[in-house]
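Quick one, probably user error.
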């Protein structure tokens, strides 16, 4: 059941817990009337002036003083949700916040659903759907590059790009429909070439968006990189090197790492979750065997595995067996312990990168290869198509454009070509929310926090 937009909703807009300041937000047709019941300005005024902070006393449900706070009112024309909004800027006491929310909801408000404020902003025309999704991505950003990419989408960069592509689709569709509407007129080879050129331009625009998808997705969602290899290959040393801190115990005793150890790192702007796994070997020790099983599951589920060869020993039959098991996992095979030995003939055909985790040799090249293998290299300003939903719709649009091109080339299939062009335009329109079903909106906004 969809939330009723006629309701006035309330929620904590800042993070939960104790803090210097907490903001409680009301939005809806009765926001000002409800808010004024629980605020007494120090300088009495008939109506708080719009968009100006007013100092006063916040009252509880019994109209007793609760806190000294700032009150601000935003008319619908200048609010985030395109409807009247009131904010209380309180001291960040959970008790004060919960007491005020209880009073507000007992007198006409209700607690907001997750993402309901931004959903109202979308429905009110403040944001298109790609911009609304970018709000959540900006909040969840785990690196500066990720935050900047989300901000570009929030300020309309993806919407603008989709709009330009749809302009070319409109040109092609106008020419196709001219042939349908005026069948006795010869559209001629020049106009058909114009139609095909417009289709090609639209297709190139969609292709460019798709080319930046993997970096955009990795910036927004991160990636899991598992460190794999036999015991004593140097996984924990490399983990500590990449993490920039001593997070995993390093010891010459084989099997030191049992449980996967994780660290959040940022490499070339990408938020990554590094996982140091147990050394891979056959063992009769119950605890170590469980650790190896856990390692195998972790490696199989990773976005990328860095498999380390112990340079002090060289490539073994066990290494080849483990590499065969993980053949389906994107991987980078690396010769470690370059400080002890250079790669020998056994490494041929497996890789060409040698490092010393202990001394940091070739660390920058390892980072560059890692980003490249994740498919996440490229310019951040082209990283616009972040969501899998966006990618799927863009891929559908390309299929429709390819069909339209083939039909237009045939010369007598204008009605079918126009149908494919309309389908392509609809798919692109769904990215920005022009034709998005309610159940898709429910899924998107459920990812938001309650106060946003």
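Nope, works fine. Designed sequence:
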């Amino acid at each position: 059941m969809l939330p009723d937009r006629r309701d006035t909703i309330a929620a904590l807009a800042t993070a939960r817990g104790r803090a210097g300041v907490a903001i409680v937000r009301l939005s809806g047709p009765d926001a000002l009337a409800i808010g004024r019941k629980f605020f007494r300005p120090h300088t009495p005024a008939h109506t708080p002036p719009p968009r100006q902070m007013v100092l006063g006393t916040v009252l509880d449900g019994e109209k007793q003083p609760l806190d000294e706070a700032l009150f601000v009112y935003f008319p619908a024309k200048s609010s985030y949700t395109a409807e009247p909004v009131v904010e209380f800027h309180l001291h960040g006491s959970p008790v004060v916040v919960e007491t005020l929310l209880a009073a507000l909801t007992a007198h006409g408000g209700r607690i907001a659903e997750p993402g309901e404020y931004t959903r109202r902003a979308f429905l009110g025309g403040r944001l298109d759907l790609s911009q609304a999704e970018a709000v959540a991505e900006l909040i969840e950003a785990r690196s500066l590059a990720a935050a900047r990419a989300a901000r570009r989408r929030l300020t309309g960069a993806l919407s603008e790009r989709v709009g330009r592509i749809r302009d070319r689709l409109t040109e092609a569709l106008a020419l196709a429909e001219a042939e349908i509407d005026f069948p006795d007129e010869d559209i001629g080879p020049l106009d058909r070439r114009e139609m095909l050129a417009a289709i090609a331009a639209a297709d190139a625009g969609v292709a460019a968006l798709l080319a930046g998808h993997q970096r955009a997705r990795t910036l927004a969602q991160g990636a899991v990189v598992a460190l794999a290899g036999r015991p004593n290959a140097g996984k924990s040393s490399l983990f500590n090197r990449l993490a920039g801190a001593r997070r995993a115990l390093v010891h010459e005793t084989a099997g030191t790492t049992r449980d996967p150890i994780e660290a959040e790192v940022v490499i070339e702007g990408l938020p990554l979750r590094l996982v140091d796994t147990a050394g891979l070997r056959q063992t009769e020790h119950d605890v170590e065997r469980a650790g190896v099983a856990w390692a195998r599951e972790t490696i199989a589920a990773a976005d990328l595995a860095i498999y380390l060869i112990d340079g002090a020993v060289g490539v073994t039959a066990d290494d080849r067996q483990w590499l065969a098991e993980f053949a389906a996992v994107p991987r980078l095979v690396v010769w470690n312990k370059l400080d002890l030995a250079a790669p020998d003939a056994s490494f041929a055909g497996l890789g060409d990168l040698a490092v010393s985790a202990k001394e940091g040799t070739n660390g920058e090249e390892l980072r560059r290869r890692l980003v490249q293998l994740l498919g996440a290299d490229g310019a951040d300003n082209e990283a616009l198509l972040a969501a899998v939903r966006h990618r799927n719709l863009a891929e559908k649009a390309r299929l429709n454009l390819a069909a339209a091109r083939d039909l237009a080339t045939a010369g007598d299939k204008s009605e079918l070509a126009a149908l494919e062009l309309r389908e392509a335009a609809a798919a692109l329109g769904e990215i920005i929310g022009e034709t998005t079903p309610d159940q898709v909106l429910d899924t998107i906004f459920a990812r938001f926090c309650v106060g946003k």
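The chain has a mean pLDDT of 87.
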